Structure to design on (123 residues):
C-alpha cells in the first residue's frame, strides 16, 4: 500500500499564492507519474497538472503560467505552487501517483489517491 497525504491548502484572496505538498509513503520501489487533480462542488474532477519521474510536465490550459508542479524524487514528495489564484481555482485538490511497490519479494504496480486539501479563493 502507498499512502498519499496532502497539505498546504487554505483560504486566500484573489491574486494570492499557495503551495501544496503531497507526501507518499509505503513500500515504494518507484513512482512514475504524479499528478494534481481538483474537484469543485457540483463539477467533475479536473486534471490540473502531471509530472513524470524524469520531470516532464503538463498543465491544464486554465492554470498554465500560474501553477508549477514539481517533485522531490528522493523524498517522494509532490508540490504544486499556485500563484495568481482566482475564485474559480476553489476546489478540493487531490494528489495522484502510480508506480511499483516491493512486497513479499515481488514488484507490484500501484495507483494511489490522497484524501485532498481544500483551496478556497475569495475576497
Amino acid at each position: 500500500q502507498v499512502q498519499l497525504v496532502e497539505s498546504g491548502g487554505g483560504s486566500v484572496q484573489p491574486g494570492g499564492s499557495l503551495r501544496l505538498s503531497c507526501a507518499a509513503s509505503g513500500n515504494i520501489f518507484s513512482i512514475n507519474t504524479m499528478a494534481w487533480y481538483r474537484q469543485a462542488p457540483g463539477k467533475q474532477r479536473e486534471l490540473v497538472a502531471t509530472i513524470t519521474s524524469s520531470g516532464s510536465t503538463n498543465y491544464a490550459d486554465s492554470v498554465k503560467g500560474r501553477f508549477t508542479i514539481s517533485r522531490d524524487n528522493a523524498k517522494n514528495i509532490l508540490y504544486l505552487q499556485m500563484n495568481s489564484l482566482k475564485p474559480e481555482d476553489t476546489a478540493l485538490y487531490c494528489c495522484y501517483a502510480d508506480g511499483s511497490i516491493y512486497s513479499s519479494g515481488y514488484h507490484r504496480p500501484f495507483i494511489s489517491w490522497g484524501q485532498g486539501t481544500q483551496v478556497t479563493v475569495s475576497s
Residues 3 and 71 are 16 Å apart (CA to CA).
